[in-house]
Amino acid sequence: LFTAVEMAPRDPILGLNEQFAADPNPHKVNLGVGVYYDDNGKLPLLECVQAAEKQMMEAPKARGYLPIDGIAAYDSAVKGLVFGADSEPVKSGRVATIQALGGTGGLKVGADFLRKLKPAAKVLISDPSWENHRALFTQAGFTVETYPYYDAASRGVNFDGMLAALQATPAGTVVVLHACCHNPTGYDITPEQWDQVIAAVKARELVPFLDMAYQGFGQGIAEDGAVIGKFVAAGLTFFVSTSFSKSFSLYGERVGALSVLCDSKEEADRVLSQLKIMIRTNYSNPPIHGGTVVATVLNTPELRALWEKELGDMRLRIKQMRIALVEKLKAAGVKEDMGFITTQIGMFSYSGLTKDQMVRLRNEFGVYGTDTGRMCVAALNSKNIDYVCAAIAKVL
Ligand code: PLP
Ligand code: TYF
């Protein structure tokens, strides 16, 4: 049965983790996978999460099946976060939201539904994008192509190229857009550029799928969510996937969501019924723990305030690491102006280093980033940054 089964390639990012774990170098630093570590190099367990879990422990509950679309209080909290609790879409009931297995799960439920709805549509992702975007939409049955995004020469976004591509795209094409903190480049488009993207999406009748995996890591929760408000104001219907993996440091609990903005409550009810079929035939219903933690935090004012503070601290620490990286690379003798690192946003920096340089960093110094030159700034800290800067200076 399995004699013809080929060995599949490793995930380019998660595969690096395995290589890192096996590396005996005592100085090794993992800047490969997108995970936030604190200044001691530890994965944080947020205080708001611990407080919610304490509450849950003190009033233990039996574990029946959840509804197919998850915890109602979780879904409504997600709607509030993404669209605004008092926003017209939420108040009118025209958002269909389901609790998903991480942001990936939200993307996949949305992709499966879209494939049934628009089987002939193509999917466009940014060039480059999170590699799993291509894999996930391909696996869902779509042909995946790209729109221009990164411009290496200007160290920024090739916005003219992006817009021209969208304007030349056939109606009904699904366009995956990073809502904020673009992975892997760290370059976001400006609010004015978003307006132009939205105009193109509207004119060409494209289907926007916003991936919001880093809400709160850019400028703040509301600030990063503002782009959603722009799509709403334009009168569009669209998809939004949410991930709490990073913002709650709950990677392994698999907490995320999919929200679909429809034209009316009646339409949202029908869409929700279809999303439920996707869920039921895949994993039936989501798990309880992570969703309860997030719902408890988001729906308890003191815990919500604590979360916003802790998320703000993570955001600030990453920004400080960007500033320190620029200064220390200069001090380590790098002649090139690395100031672009502080104009990037979110957890990643596209460093501009070549594949050869990234391989040298890994093999000679135990500093792990992806072959594309992406480094996770959120894994730098006051103890490893000098070593990393010295290593980068040597390969440059
Ligand atoms: N989308 C992007 C752009 C990401 O970087 C990630 C990271 O993991 C995800 C989606 C998936 O999120 P999750 O880990 O919650 O599945
Ligand atoms: O881009 C990253 O590093 C994160 C984590 O298949 C990740 O988004 C990477 C690869 C993958 C799943 C998650």
UniProtKB/TrEMBL annotation:
One of its GO terms (molecular function) is pyridoxal phosphate binding. It is an enzyme of class 2 (transferase). The keyword Signal does not apply. Coiled coil: none annotated. SUPFAM superfamilies: PLP-dependent transferases. Its EC number is 2.6.1.-. One of its GO terms (cellular component) is cytosol. Its cofactor is pyridoxal 5'-phosphate. Keywords: Aminotransferase, Pyridoxal phosphate, Transferase. GO terms for biological process: L-phenylalanine biosynthetic process from chorismate via phenylpyruvate. The keyword Cell membrane does not apply. Residues 27-392 form the Aminotransferase class I/classII large domain. Belongs to the class-I pyridoxal-phosphate-dependent aminotransferase family. NCBIfam families: PRK09257.1 (NF006719). Homodimer. This is Aminotransferase. It comes from Variovorax terrae.
